[in-house]
Amino acid sequence: MSATLGIIGSGNVGGTVARLAVAAGWNVVISNSRGPETLGEVVARLGKRARAATPAEAAQGSDLVVVTVPLLAYSRLPREALAGRTVIDTMNYYPERDGRIAQLDSREMTSSEFFQRHLPGARVVKAFNNIVCTQLGSLARPAGASDRSALPVSGDDNPAKAEVTNLLDALGYDATDIGTLAESWRYEPRSSLYCAPYLGTIPDGLARQEIAQWAWETPGVPVPAQTIKELADASVRGTLVGGEF
Ligand SMILES: NC(=O)c1ccc[n+]([C@@H]2O[C@H](COP(=O)([O-])OP(=O)(O)OC[C@H]3O[C@@H](n4cnc5c(N)ncnc54)[C@H](OP(=O)(O)O)[C@@H]3O)[C@@H](O)[C@H]2O)c1
């Protein structure tokens, strides 16, 4: 029987992960903040393996759950339904969007540790946060392909990380283990592992706004596991916290 992926958040990342999962033969239960009745078109595009539900149903009826909402929504997530589950955190801290979070500004913890503390009963694994959704969709390749990319994963529970590694493999990616959630700053916004490696070389002569548009549209370049490991090892934690639009 096919495994089921629960997805909380049906936007850019949630929609892309759902598409990859369905293509890999997973069932998908997808949810958003406005209710399943608003997800008709999304589910129709995904096909027979997908259905819409509430966030709590997406969490309860699934083998693995992806939480992919703006970080500011963390406190509105179904905490009880997520307890006891492996939860993939794709979220990034963007103060402009999410408001200031003191524990993150002080670098007392990474955004995934912050999320894990909010969900003490869940096993949080950080993944998918350091690649633009366009490249996430376009760089997926079957196992063994010479141009397969890797994504970094981190988490405090090794069996949960193994579950997520298996999911990534099915979706078209190798996984590079970065360690615990405390180490996940190595691929948070402003790190050298954040989005840029998968973009490739920015064309000359583009204005800032044009670069953003190009980054949104380019299919990207493959980034093998060894490169992810080298970039993670070489990461230096700067003074600025959080991403900037
Ligand atoms: N965009 C990217 O390329 C990218 C790449 C890596 C990581 N990320 C990170 O991944 C997260 C999602 O990004 P995105 O671009 O996919 O966002 P998005 O397109 O704005 O979609 C956000 C989704 O979250 C849902 N949502 C918001 N509050 C919710 C709640 N309380 N309960 C359930 N669902 C809720 C929204 O539902 P409604 O529409 O019904 O409100 C929407 O479906 C963010 O933290 C972002 O920083 C983004």
Written account of the structure:
The protein has a domain at 70-234: NAD(P)-binding Rossmann-like Domain (Rossmann fold), CATH 3.40.50.720. It is 36% helix and 15% strand. The protein contains 12 helices and 8 strands. α4 links the parallel β4 (64-67) and β5 (86-89). The chain starts with a strand and ends in an 11-residue tail after the last helix. The model has no long low-confidence stretch (mean pLDDT 97). The structure holds NADP nicotinamide-adenine-dinucleotide phosphate. NADP nicotinamide-adenine-dinucleotide phosphate (NAP) is lined by residues 8-14, 31-34, 55, 68-71, 73, 76, 90-92, 94, 129, 132-133.
Task: Describe the structure in brief.
The protein is of the alpha/beta class. It contains twelve helices and eight strands. Helices cover 36% and strands 15% of the residues.
The residue fraction in helices comes out at 25-40%
Mean pLDDT: 97
Please state the structural category. Answer: alpha/beta
CATH class of the domain at 70-234: Alpha Beta
Tell me the CATH topology of the domain at 70-234: Rossmann fold
Per DSSP E runs of 2 or more residues, the count of β-strands stands at 8
Calculate Rg over CA atoms.
17 Å
Low-confidence parts lasting 5 or more residues at pLDDT below 50?
none
Query: Based on CA inertia axes, which overall geometry fits?
Result: globular
The SSE string, one letter per element, is EHEHEHEHEHHHEHEHEHHH
Largest sheet: 8 strands, mixed
- CATH-scheme architecture of the domain at 70-234: 3-Layer(aba) Sandwich
Strand order of the largest sheet: 3-2-1-4-5-6-7-8
Q: How much strand content do the residues show?
A: 15-25%
End-to-end separation:
42 Å
Supply the number of helical segments. 12
Relevant CATH superfamily of the domain at 70-234: NAD(P)-binding Rossmann-like Domain
Give a list of the ligands.
Answer: NADP nicotinamide-adenine-dinucleotide phosphate
